[in-house]
Amino acid sequence: MTDNNFNPSVEEWYYPDENVRATSNAPDYDATYTKAMGDIESFWAERARSLEWFEPWDKVLDRSGAPFFKWFVGGKTNIAYNALDRHVKTWRKNKLALIFEGEPGDKQTYSYWRLNQEVNKFANVLRSMGVKKGDRVTIYMGRIPEIMIAMLACAKVGAVHSVIYGGFSEQAIADRVEDAQSRVLITCDGAWLRGNIVPLKETVDKAIAKSPIVETVIVVKRTNQPVNMEQGRDYWYHDLMTLPIASPRFETQVMDAEDPLFILYTSGTTGKPKGILHTHGGYSVYISTTLSWVFDLKDEDRWWCAADPGWITGHSYIVYGPLILGATGFMYEGAPTFPYPNRWWKLVEDYGITVLYTAPTAIRGLMRFGEAWPNRHDLSSLRLLGSVGEPINPEAWKWYHRVIGKEKCPIMDTWWQTETGGFMITPLPSTALKPGSATRPFPGIDIDVVNEAGESVPPGTDGNLVIKQPWPGMLRTVYGDPDRYVRQYWNTYAKQGWYVTGDSARKDKDGYVWIIGRNDDVIKVSGYRLGTAEIESGLVSHPAVAEAAAVGIPDEVRGNIIYAYCILRSDYSASEALIEELKEHIRHQIGPIAVPSKLEIVPSLPKTRSGKIMRRVIRARAMGMPEGDISTLEE
Ligand code: PRX
After folding, report:
1. Is 343 helix (H, G, I), strand (E, B) or coil?
2. How many CB atoms lie within 10 A of CB 65?
3. What is the side-by-side order of every strand in the sheet holding 545-555?
4. Which strand (E) or helix (H) includes residue 177?
5. Per-residue pLDDT tens over the stretch 549-590
6. Ligand 1 atom 6 nearest Cα
7. Which pLDDT score, from 0 to 100, does residue 4 have?
8. Distance CA 422, CA 416 (A)
9. From the CA of 502, how far away is ligand 1's center (Å)?
10. Is the CB of residue 513 less than 8 Å from the CB of residue 461?
């Protein structure tokens, strides 16, 4: 599907301040890009040398098993060693790693020293519970410091974490736990959101009833309501952390560069989410380089990536990237509008945030409340802004630039994916910007816009966005399903050996890339990635539904919203109550983010002669537009 909610003909340039250009961490773009493309292995090897390795690599890139590429082969490292251990040996042990504010207003800070100690204690707890190198640990938590501690402790032990976003439901957790075969789960009693408690532990209990493979549940006390604690299975985090076994000394596990660090499930074109697998070595190099050059983090910065740690943005740019760079990060637990729509702007002022990274949907959502809310606050600490998750429409870009950035902060519109690990198409602080374009590829990244035959399309023409060379932050496989990895990402341009992104894009005459949106059956709702097939199979799992079709419809704030159409089984009849029941069913199958804005019961669905649902026709009809060519239509 395409989200054509911006106007690529808008080609106003915004030039960065001379000062930004002169002081940024990033080298000159043109020269670096050209040099990197001349020899990508030397380029990435040089970047890798800014990290610490227990043993150096023998080979930078092994293409022999393509598309199963390997980076820094033979190198020994651990991402947590670079994120924590090496910093506590320097003056940085006294520096703040994390500043936290909870939705109710409670505050906490962690120096690198304290964070490392907490991580070590928890790593000892995990190990004492039998968690070993390679074991999968599921994490289902709110946005609190302990989620970082849990992830980093897994990394130190050498376990593979699978973080599930706190907005997912019991069925989604059960499926992911099952797929990862994870025996240990870390959660909270609840999370604060809009003044209410999201009952995470209760959802976990329901999930485990469906997927009993979980043997141990560790529960962080956050919201304090009574929860069910099953004897012999459930343990309070704060109890475990006071046991003698929870020593603050822990020998970080030596890992192979290619050993897995985490699995992160994301939606694709089938009903079953894919476990995207990332590793210790290449991923560390990629995210630290991209974060340093794009967001220019310096020791005096206060960096706020407002995403959730449960998404790739949080993994790469809340947890691992900033810590590798020794930066100070800020984390806020709750809703941007709680208790008033000035909450975010108040946080920027209270904590002196210098770099803010968020999503277009959040900007559009806050824009609706008007300028008076941000204008009550002193936002002059901000020097750089960022955007991710979907195309940013020029109207939102300009508001962000003018009202939040006071026309002095360049906006880094970063295009990337769960699969890419880090930013792929992005400005650097010195790049001349055009609102709505993610500008050009990061040095070392070889992208193109091509037609079905694999030929580059001329400027101004839509095509498939492909990546022509491997990069260190790339996914290594789909967990447990290597065939799907090959089929999904490498089969479209198998002859050329290119990675297909699933996005349509166009380049303009200056080589700037304009992302149009997904061209597969993936919908972006408020920046969240959902598969139409996932929603459809959720609906069909209800006994009343014989067939279902879901489509994405453009929406001013959320980017897209979901419309769903269901054909009922013959012994059911349509009613308002049934529609509500089906929506509730999706809430439990996937989560609140997947609940269709509109759900209609229909007698039939348009299909091709081969029986494929014609989403294009359904979508056109839902939007009240002409239905186009329906000559192949059967029903
Ligand atoms: O369609 C693109 C869109 O988000 C997709 C990746 O989604 P996900 O794996 O959830 O990762 C989101 C955070 C990295 C892409 O295929 N997308 C992401 N960033 C942008 C974007 N579309 C346009 N502009 C962006 N800056």
Report:
1. helix
2. 8
3. 545-555, 559-568, 598-601
4. helix 170-180
5. 999 999 999 999 999 999 999 999 999 999 999 999 999 999
6. 417
7. 41
8. 6
9. 10
10. no
* 312-344 per-position pLDDT tens digit: 999 999 999 999 999 999 999 999 999 999 999
| 211: helix, strand or coil | coil
- Tokens 């519109």 sit at which residue? 413
Distance, in Å, from the CA atom of 622 to the CA atom of 630, rounded to the nearest integer, reads: 15
Mean residue pLDDT of the chain comes to 95
Instruction: Give, for ligand 1, the residue of 414, 519, 529 to mutate: max count of ligand atoms closer than 8 Å to Cβ.
Output: 529
CA distance 531 to 533: 5
Distance CA(115)–CA(85), nearest Å, equals 10
586 CA → ligand 1 middle, Å: 24
- Owner of token pair 């000159």: 28
pTM: 0.95
Residue 440 has φ and ψ, to the nearest 5°, of -125, 165
For residue 545, the SS3 value is strand
Residue recorded with tokens 């529960």: 219
Q: Cis check for the bond before 339: say yes or no (omega within 30 of 0).
A: yes
DSSP states of 476-515: -EETT-HHHHHHHHHSTTTTTTPEEEEEEEEE-TTS-EEE
- Element spanning 540, H or E: helix 532-540
225 with 197: CB under 8 angstroms? yes
The SS3 call for residue 45 is helix
Selection from 478, 103, 438 nearest residue 269 by Cα:
478
The C-alpha atoms of residue 346 and residue 106 are separated, in whole angstroms, by: 14
Q: What is the DSSP string of 226-241?
A: -----TTTEEEHHHHT
Pocket of ligand 1, beta carbon within 6 A: 266, 312-313, 388-391, 413-418, 438, 501-503, 515, 517-518, 524, 529
Atom of ligand 1 nearest to the CA of 517: 1
Q: Whose CA is nearest to atom 18 of ligand 1?
A: 389
Residues 464 and 462: their CA atoms lie apart, in Å, by 7
| Sequence-separated (6 or more) residues with CB below 8 Å from residue 532 | 521, 522, 523, 549, 550, 551, 552, 615
Residue nearest to atom 12 of ligand 1 (CA): 389
Token pair recorded at residue 94: 């006294």
